[in-house]
Amino acid sequence: MCELLSTNPVTIGEAIRQTRLLLDEQRVAIAPTTLCFTEAQQVLDYIAGRHAPTRKPLPDELSHPALTGMTRQDLDTLIDRLTIPHAATIERRRHRQRGGDRLPGTRRGVFPQKITDTNRVLATILYQRRFCTRQVLADLFNVSRGTISNAIAEVAPLLEQHGPIIEPAGRKFATATDILNSVTPSTDPQNPRRTTVLILYGSSASGTAAGPRRAGSPRSPRPGRRGRRR
């Protein structure tokens, strides 16, 4: 904002404070947007109709279709669809915590998020896939178990209302390392930067198999087939 308006943070902060007072007095609510600009040039490019800013990419290993049960494109679409309802849920929670409306001129929050909104959705999907416990998810996203529990509590009702049915994968991992070790580098046309794939036996790659198998490892013999004559 300072770069766009050629001013300083103090002036911007005072202008925001005064504008918030007027908006609160007139009971005008500003709906959140799904866009997030980090540079002045991104704003100018968007106004000129060139392109919108890209969201911070999800973790490659954890957003692979074999783990989420959906394509990367479907996952991105779902996250975008949940953005505004999720923001409304957070605001309602803060309203309850405050015991009423936010006081005019007060800030909406000064502490950075421990986990991004996109990763909140991803963590909830993985939890509903029943891959692991909440503690394992906390280890994967480098946050506390309480943060993961709060994310699931916020996102799960939104998934039930706005998202598809998340099918359990039928495989559970004991540790974060087990999950990361279950994926191996491979060619993924959806993500050529850094790619992973979970190779499953007994079913499709949608994650419904009984367990993972690394590429090139021998298959276990099927029960009842040993010594069978043709």
Taking pLDDT < 50 over at least 5 consecutive residues as the criterion, the unreliable ranges are 104-112, 192-230
Question: Mean pLDDT across all residues, rounded?
Answer: 71
Helix content: 40-55%
> What is the ordering of alpha helices and beta strands?
HHHHHHHHH
H/I helix tally: 9
The total strand number stands at: 0
- Biggest sheet details: none
What Rg, in angstroms, do the CA atoms define? 23 Å
Strand content: under 5%
Distance between the termini: 76 Å
Q: Class by helix and strand content?
A: mainly alpha
Anisotropy-based shape = elongated
Describe the 3D structure:
It is a single chain. Helix content is 45%, strand content 0%. It is built from nine helices and no strands. The model is unreliable at 104-112 and 192-230 (pLDDT under 50).
What's the short story on this structure?
The protein has nine helices and no strands. The protein has helices spanning 2-5, 9-25, 40-47, 65-68, 72-98, 117-128, 134-141, 145-162, 176-181.
Properties at a glance:
230 residues; mainly alpha; 0% strand; single chain; 9 helices
Please write out the topology:
Elements: H1 2-5, H2 9-25, H3 40-47, H4 65-68, H5 72-98, H6 117-128, H7 134-141, H8 145-162, H9 176-181
Helix pairs in contact: 5-6, 5-8, 6-8, 7-8
